[in-house]
Amino acid sequence: MTTTVHIAITGNKQVAVETESGATLLQPGAHHAFLVHGDGEIKIREHGDFVGAPELPLVRTLQPAPNA
Known about the structure:
mainly beta, four-stranded antiparallel β-sheet, two-stranded antiparallel sheet, 6 strands
């Protein structure tokens, strides 16, 4: 079974969302739907410093740190 989870971001920080298909970075003002299959999980955490103004695109793939 598949479930669709909708996430909307408000505030002044970016949010990192991790699913079984990868990590996504959401800027304030973003909204996105994620699919969860079976026993899949979604992990959400604040990411980075405060954001003065969001940058486009509001939803993007989270890139690993250069030394990771």
